[in-house]
Amino acid sequence: MGDSLTMKILREHLVSPAGSPQPGQEILIRVDHTLTQDATGTMAYLQFEAMGVPRVRTRLSVSYVDHNMLQTGYENMDDHVFLQTFAAKYGIYFSRPGNGICHQVHLERFSEPGKVLLGSDSHTPTAGGAGMLAIGAGGLDVAVAMAGGPFGLPMPRIVGVRLIGKRQPWVAAKDVILEMLRRLTVKGGVGKVFEYHGPGIRDLTVPERATICNMGAELGATTSIFPSDDITRAFLRKQGREAAWRELLPDEDAHYDELMEIDLSTLEPLVAQPHMPDRVVPVQAVAGLALDQVCIGSCTNSSYHDLAIAAHVLRGQRVAPNVQMTLTPGSRQVFATIAKNGILADLIAAGARILEAACGPCIGMGQAPKSGGVSLRTFNRNFEGRSGTPDAKVYLCSPETAAVSALYGVLTDPRTYPGGYVTEREPDVYDTDDEGMILPPAPDPERIEIVRGPNIKPLPVRGPLEETLQAKVLLKVGDNITTDHIMPAGSKILPLRSNIPAISEYVFVRIDPGFPQRAKQAGGGIIVAGANYGQGSSREHAALAPMYLGVKAVIAKSFARIHRQNLINFGILPLVFANPSDYDAIAQDDMLTIEHVRDQLRQGPDLTVSAPGGRVIRVRCEVSDRQREILLSGGLLNHVRQHQGS
Ligand code: F3S
Q1: Family assignment (predicted)?
Q2: Of 13, 33, 67, 305, which is the active-site residue?
């Protein structure tokens, strides 16, 4: 049988093993591009610096600033300046604050079909809309890739998603990915790549494909990808980058590990209800719900079309008086284009609040809804509290549904809107300004001094794994604990991301405010969790800050992929109950002991944990040889340093 598109790219980038790896087997791949954003970038760069490599060794590395744009204190701009000077010195392009959200800008200005992108942000797969194999990872993995090292991951199962038919008017790309979430849930994509193909892909522009790939992260997928075809070529031409195009299609008889099919003509507008992206129902089923806020934007839905459709709906009308509406262009390019062609004026006239091209409300940086409020957003996540308002209810939908609902003040099926649907979706040429907004690396790096404000603190590193691990259960939590639960974001906490002692005071603060103090008093400990621990984002602070507090192991029913790797990278043992019912046998404050943990780990995946009352609990630590060495070294940074010294 022939190769899928994913397999073709993997073959071109495979460092090891030789041949055709089986799903689940660890593979190492070469990385072409890296991206970082400011919330994860400062730490990734401190880690890169600790490796002692003079210049990045990737084909292209870009540093974006999009998360921490509120400058209510000195911390954020200190970090921006650190990132800018670091990028200049080490061979990294710097996308200036105001240039847009990393995924939107990378798609527009840097995407290259067939290349591998590793980004320290979980929505890095957005670039799969332009035929890249784009994977989200922790900052430390990205730092290793920048230093020229390969990226290790379990060989994913490749799922062929065959699209047929054509969408009806008012049915959006967002509804395609919401349908995927409805069918598969937030756990349905773990260990998988979703490869879209079939005649229906011709119904989707590159930004629409990118919306689908972006929110594949909510399925827990390794990544998602579309072929690079003449639609991709046309997109790159409008970007003035046709030279980056290459045709990349699956073979006619491509082998897929699994297959599924979506008939686009049968889809209807969908909405994800609070507080999970997979609580998807038809908009019709909850139509009439009173709204307090409508937000269009985020890396999922902030393309030209997303704002143009809002302007089409709102032109000559006004946002309902009970609603505050915000609009966020995804990039300076989109912002400049709508400013020139009148769309921005239409949106302002309709009463929408225009925000700068950045993450903004998606990461809780402003625009928190009123207490108990209902917010309808085109974003990708609606986890409890992420909006900045603990009891707000956030619904996720398409820009089409959001715009029509903003007009009427209640959740509304956009197909009931009396005006027609517009078909022209993209301008002929985009307004680009790379010279002004993307700073190339300095030609004379030796003259660049890295500026470090007081918020940049040295990187904490733990020692090698102990011979015997004995520690208290500091906290027991349930299923689907997100990285937002572990290490919350928001305008107070995010600015501390380069200051681990300070940010660690917020670990688990939403679940258990006494956790940091208890962890410090106990000299560290163990966390016990249910299924899908660490879902949601690549935020490595959710592993790094607990490591700083002395967390040695997490015993869970299962882990989300990126978080599990982050735990390994920071020397925290990710242990899975061999018998999930043992979860009930452990209580908070129990003292657990893993005798000869180093030897047990070397001997295989099965480990025994001694619990109070003489009970023995069996756990598994399924790791590759390389991951085992990383854990024994006490984390990836120690491992890389040892490797460099050998
Ligand atoms: Fe930013 Fe939200 Fe995307 S925080 S990168 S817009 S998921």
Answers
A1: Belongs to the aconitase/IPM isomerase family.
A2: 67
